Each structure stands twice: as structure tokens, then as C-alpha cells.
Amino acid sequence: MPEKGKITYKQLILLVFTSRIIVTLTNMPGLTDPPANQDLWLSELFGLPIMLLLSVPVYLLWMRYPNQTIIQYSQVIAGKVGKLFGALYVWFFMHLTMITLYQYSAFITTAVMPETPSLFFIITMVLFGVYAARNGIEVICRLSELLTPIIMASIIIIALLLIKDMDLKALTPVLEKGVGPVLQGGFTISARTTEILGIAMLLPYLNDTQKVKRVFLLSYTLMLIFFVIITIPVLTMFGVELAKTMAFPFFDTVKLIDIGDFLERIEAVYMGIWLLGGLINISFSLYLSVLGLSHLLNLKDYKPIVLPVGILLIPLTTLSFESIVGLRKFTSYKISTPYSLLFILIIPSILLVISMIRKKGARQA
Amino acid sequence: MKKLIALLMILFLLQTMLTGCWNRRELKTLAIVEMLGLDRTEDGQISLTFEILKPAEVKADNGGGGKGTWTLTSQGETVFDAFRNATLQASRKLFISQNKIIVIGQEAAKAGITPLLDFLSRDHEPRLLTHMFIAKGTAKDTLEVEHGQEKILATALENLAKVAAATSKIPRIQTLDVMKDLASKTSDPFIPGIDIFQNKEGEKVNKTIILSNTAIFKKDKLVGWFDKKETRGLLWILGEVKSGIIVVKSPQEETKNVGIEIIKASSKIKPEMIDGNLVITMEIKEDGNLGEQMSEGVDLTKPDAFEELEKRQAAVIQSEINAALTKAQDWDADIFKFGEEVHRKFPGEWPELKENWDREFKNIEVKVEVEAKLRNTGLVTRPVTIQQ
Fold first, then answer.
1. CB pair distance less than 8 Å for A110 and B179
2. CA-based angle A63:A67:A73, to the nearest 5?
3. What pLDDT digit, counting tens, does each position of B174-231 carry?
4. Chain A hits for B23, Cβ within 8 Å
5. Nearest CA to A188 among A12, A5, A18, A32?
6. What pLDDT does B21 receive?
7. Superfamily of segment(s) A9-358
8. Which one, of A182, A180, A223, lies nearest residue A55 by Cα?
């Protein structure tokens, strides 16, 4: 096995949490997804059962192959086709890293440092990711164990500082368009949780296999609670119509903090936690790409390919998206939902069915 | 040896990375903009006026000193263009992150403010908590006025925006409020007005700024002005009256005035659907204190006189609200956010109502219920002239 590290379930939960929350912290794509009104926070709560449902195929596959990652058992289950699936997953993780890199460099060059070339940020983020990934999953997990509580506390403090200016009326009418669109919103939000696959990749390295269910349940619950903590200030400070026009809604919300004319302009706090979370996110997805690639090619060690893959990602990132407009089109729910569902739900389900028919796997579920 | 070479190489590489930030800015290379004025010239160009800080002049111990700021006007095809063109005149790069006030000229406001605000929300430097004003004349003239108290006009205006709440005759509006109303499909914005007050002393003309009236918009276009009375009517409806003085006639001496101080006020807006027509019931609650009485002959601190005062107070509030309502409905400007209230109450019917909101708003029947109370009388009970 290329990776010999072991991680605890707490570390995995915190890693998955930070990796997912940071997207909402930056772009909050859910605002323009259906229902696209003030019920967004309800959609986020509805996300919990949907996310658990989406995780069922991955969970059942893990039951059958507890010591293998999704890329390994897809080859065991489906042979050559499985290899193709594995390659698709490696591509998916790499693509994810690219999207994240592009989004983050776009954010930082638009909102904070417009005169700095975005390539600078892409290169530094990749170098950090390469360094972290080379140190292995244990290091990435410990990093997130250390930083995630800081991120959580900062988000809560930011939300508390805004309470006096919140206009809770902006959240009404509740369920304006009925339950249907809200559920659809929950579905879109869940489909954006590509971290389900991250869990599927890391479950074999969990030191306590009894806690797998807890990983799914707790990480999703935490995620969704913090989604709501992030969303409510945005909706109540701006109102949904204005928030929809913003590229980085939560950043703009943090800029509104003004307490007694002295506690203001604390975007630096936001930038701090954003950078920490962003780096964890990049390291995580880069790590998944190289781990997947090493499993696909049956390498003994993944470390030698980390730097080449990282370097490869730099031109790929700058070439694959011409502008932020193109990226936004791709990450809009119309394209991103089916795209990630293919990887989260459809391929694992196919694998599960094949494995059931062929009666393969360590344990019969 | 190998390690040493590696270390040296890393050090060498660090050299290229650590040459400093791209966005490094020193105070002495920046022209800090305190206030921004937006106008449209006659040929459709954008004219920007900046009040720029002169840090050396505003030092606290700089006794006599000159003006703490200087103004600069630049023109361009768009706001951004004009902004960059200012660099042709200023010796330093304009830095707008500290900008406290935005003033828009009346003519520019009539042509629409959305195009003017786009740059200000798209660029990363300006903030949404900037106070906004509409100049009765041009923004340029307003920015060139000096203030008696403050060295920086922007500081004066920022403080004015805060203390003017004591009259409740001027709303306090920040860019965020305007953007919210512009983003909303039904609400229309309102922005306090600013005028130049000229005071002649012989040959010399003293110019000072004065906050007066409120600019009312339909969508993003200025349609008219609310005077002080109407503005307070608007603030009653929105529940934003914090303090202020209500002047009523003294019950037993109709020629004399009585001043009542508003202590607190609240409003409740209840939309109803009666026979397919929208009816809005407003409940305004107000608490006041007897602040002064200019009538010497009557003791107003008696139960029946007090009750009469409460009634008159309520009547004044009622008339202020009616004045605001009539004008706004006439101009078809939903500055009261009725649309949002109706949306909250009738989400089912809303899509249909929204389509014709302009017409619906004009025809809304509004019932105003005012409950005004008097609480305290101050440090004296009756005027000194009355002997008991």
C-alpha cells in the first residue's frame, strides 16, 4: 500500500468538514441554485438525509472492501472497466483541485490583492499542497485537527458580531415555493459535497472501523450546521436579492461588521481562516489525486509523483478555464450537479450492483 | 556538502519570492479619498469630485493650519474611467477604501443611480457602509464647501448623518440600504438631501452645508423631494423614528406652541386582502415627554390637558404619515417596503401581485392607527408665571 498512515475518525470528520465548508465560505453557490430564495437555509438542513442517502453506495462498497479505496476495488470488481472508472476518479480529483485552485486565486486577486498575478497564488498553493501531500494523510489530518476549531470559532464569532444588524424578517416567507424546490436545493447542495468521495478514499485508513457510520453522520451534521451559520448572516444582512448578485457573499458580509465605530474592517480574520481552510482543501484534493493515481498504476509509493502532478496542475489550471465566467457556468447547478452525481452516486452504484451479482467482496452486506 | 548546496539553492530561490508584496502601499504614496461626489456633465460624461486628505495638515497639534483636504475633479466616459483620469491630476494614487461619504448631484440622480453605483460595488476598495447624500445642486459645489467645526468635510457629514437622527427629519442611509432597495423588485430607495446654506455678512458670503429634505426615487431615478414633515412621516411608517420634537398648539392657548419630545416609537404594518383589494393597516405607537411649553398662562400637567396633548400629538403624527403616503403613492414609489410586507403575508398571491406592483401600490388603501402617549413633564410641572 502506498499509504501506511492511520487516522482517527475525529480527524477525518474535521478534514472533510473544513474541505467542504470553505467553498460556501468563498462563493456560496447555493444562493443561485433553486429555490434561489430565502429558504436556502432550509435546503441546507434538508441536505442531511439526502447526503446520507447519496453516501449509501459508497458505504456498502466499503462494507465489502474495508481495506481498499474506491480506485482499488473498482479494479477488483470490474477489471478493465474498473480501471477506466479508476482513471475517471483520478481525473475527477485532479479536476476538483484545478477548480478549487482557480476559484481561490480568482477570489484573492479580485477581492483582496488585484495587482498580484493569479499565477503567484496558484503556484504557492500548489507548492503547499505538494509539501502537505508528500507528508502523508496523517499530517494533513493533524493539520485540520489543529486548524478546524479555529475556523469554527471564527465563523461563530463573525456571526455573533453581526447579530445586532440582522434583519430576521428577510428570512420570511418560509417555504415560499413549497417543499419541492427546497428539497431540490438540498439535493444540489448535497451533490456539491464531493467530499463523500474523499471519505470513500480515506475509510481504509481509519484506525477504528466501528466509527464509520459516525464519520458520515457527524461530518455532514457539522457541515450543515455551519452552512446555516454562514448563510443566515448573508441572507439577513443583504436580503436574498442583493446577495444573489454578489460574487463572494460571506466576504462582503464580514466587511459589514461595525461595532461602535471601532470594531470594524475585520476582513483580516476572515482572510486568515479562509486561507487556512483553502490550503487544507487544496492539500486534501491534491492528496486524493496522487493517492488515486498511485493506486491506479499500482505504485509502491505515491510520494515521487506528488511534485510532477502538482506541477502539471499549474498549467492545467490556467488553461482549462479561460475566465471566471466560464468557471461559473461549469460550477452552476445545471452542470455541476449531474457531473458530481455521476461520480458520487452512479459509478459506485454500478460497481455495487456488479459486485453483488458476481458475489465478490470480503463481507456480504 | 549536498545539504549545504540545497540550502544555498533554497536561499537563492527565496530571494526571488521575497522581493516584497505587489500591493505594498505607503501612506505617502496614497491620496486618501474622504468623500466622493458624482455628477453627470451636460454631454453625458461622468464627473467625479474627490475630497482628498492632506495627512500633514490634519495633525492634532497643527494649530492654525490650512484646510485638511483638497478637492479634485476629473471626467470620463464611465465612473471607472473618470476615477483613473484623476491620476492625471493627483500626484498620488487615489485610495478609496477610507471613503466615508458619497454625494450624488441632483441631475445625475434624475438620470439614474444604478450605473453610478456599479463600479462602487464591483471594485474591491469601496465599502458598503458609506453614507450617501443627494446634492440639491451639483456634488462638486457641495464638496468645495468648508465646515466650521471639522477640518474635513467628510468627517462633518459623517457625524451629521449620525446626529441628525435626533430630529428624525433626515434618514440615515448607507450604500447598503440603497443597494438592497435597488435589488428588491418592489422597494424604492430614498436618500437624504444636502444643500448649501449661504449666509451673507456684508461682502463676504459664508457657505455651510445643511441636511435638508429627502430625495425619493422610483427604481433608480430621482422623482421628487420629501420635506421634513413628509420625511418624518416616512420614518414613522418604517419604525425608524428614534427621537425628535413634535410641535402642537397649546390646548387652551391656541396661538402658543408646545414641544413634545419623542422618546420611543414603533410601527407595525399588517397587509390584508379584503374583497381582492389590498388593505394595509398600520399601527404606530409613540411615547413622548412634555419638553417645553411656550404658553405662559396654562398648566398643562393636568390629566385633561395631558389627554388633549396626546390627541393633538397623535393628530400631528397622523398628518405627517398621510402627507408621506399621498406623495409616495402619487409618485408610485414604494419607499415604505409595502411590497416586501405583502410578499411575506401573501406568498401565494405574490407572483401575480408582483407583476403589477406599480398599479397595486397606487391603489392600496392604508389605514393608520396612531397611539401616542405622554409620560413625563421634565424638571418642572407648571410654568413659573402661574400662581397657585
1. no
2. 75
3. 999 999 999 988 899 999 999 998 888 878 888 888 998 999 999 899 999 999 999 9
4. 113-116
5. A32
6. 61
7. Amino acid/polyamine transporter I (1.20.1740.10)
8. A223
Tens of pLDDT, residues B235-255:
999 999 989 999 999 888 888
As for the ipTM of the complex, it is 0.85
Q: A258 — contact with chain B (CB < 8 Å)? A: yes
Domain extents in chain A:
9-358
A-chain CB neighbours of B128 within 8 Å are 252, 255-256
Across the interface, which of A116, A237, A241 has its CB nearest the CB of B184? A241
Nearest chain A Cα distance for residue B304, angstroms: 40
The cell 383589494 sits on which residue? B277
Contact B185 A258 (CB under 8 A): no
Q: What is the pLDDT of residues B81-116, one digit of tens each?
A: 999 999 899 888 888 988 999 999 999 999 999 999
Residue whose C-alpha cell is 381582492? B276
Chain B residues within 8 A of A171 when measuring between CB atoms: none
State how far residue A90 is from chain B, nearest Cα, in angstroms.
32
Find the mean pLDDT for residues B275-285.
Answer: 90
pLDDT band at B62, cuts 50/70/90? low
In order of their start, the domains of chain B are: 27-226 (no CATH), 231-388 (3.30.300.210)
The burial class, CB within 10 Å (0-12 / 13-18 / 19+), for A83 is middle
